[in-house]
């Protein structure tokens, strides 16, 4: 009966995992000579393995203590965090002490950034600011910038920006921070924020 038991040496994500699954499903289809107990055990083992392959990667931080005088302008400043939303993280390490996150698995990650900036000086002209990641490890800006619009005659910005970033092998195991700036002057605002990260890649990459 050991011929169909799951081997601990075959971990989800290994190159031979697809071959292993195909072999086990084939044995389920051709059940000649197998007892009900053997078939039941095989199904249980496959279910256990598939559960391990669920591509769930996640992490999150937010800012519980509002930051006053978060002034925006032509230069970029770090978006601060002071709290980890999820104690258990997978595929990414969140570090509010350095306002950073470090992805440990290559592939597509979905980011959701919530920003609430209140009490800044209003203007009769529309204004913009930008969001970008900064690669702390390499000391260079990373990835593209995202434009965030601020309406006319308003003293508050409350928005959520969602986007997907594909981290290649050279991008992982490096620390990144979120920055704002590179746009209009916005002064006197008080900031609160949140950052959620979810892996949306293929089956098995995060197991």
CATH architecture of the largest domain: Sandwich
Number of structural units classed as domains: 2
Helix content: 10-25%
As a whole number of angstroms, the C-alpha radius of gyration is 23 Å
Biggest sheet statistics: 6 strands, antiparallel
Total helix count?
2
CATH topology term of the largest domain: Jelly Rolls
Low-confidence stretches: 1-15
- What amount of the residues lies in strands? 35-45%
Instruction: Give the overall average pLDDT.
Output: 82
Please write the CATH class name of the largest domain. Mainly Beta
What structural category characterises the helix and strand content?
mainly beta
Number of strands: 11
State the separation between the terminal residues, measured CA to CA.
Answer: 26 Å
SSE pattern, N- to C-terminal: HHEEEEEEEEEEE
How does this structure look, described?
Strand 4 and strand 5 form a beta hairpin. The two termini are 26 Å apart. The chain folds into 2 domains: 53 residues; 142 residues, Jelly Rolls, CATH 2.60.120. By secondary structure, it is mainly β.
Entry keywords:
207 residues, mainly beta, Jelly Rolls, 2 domains, 2 helices
Short description:
It is built from two helices and eleven strands; from the N terminus they run ααβββββββββββ.
Topology:
Blueprint: H1 17-29, H2 36-52, E1 58-62, E2 76-78, E3 83-84, E4 92-95, E5 100-103, E6 107-118, E7 127-135, E8 140-150, E9 156-167, E10 176-181, E11 190-199
Antiparallel strand pairs: 1-3, 1-11, 2-10, 4-5, 5-10, 6-9, 6-11, 7-8, 7-10
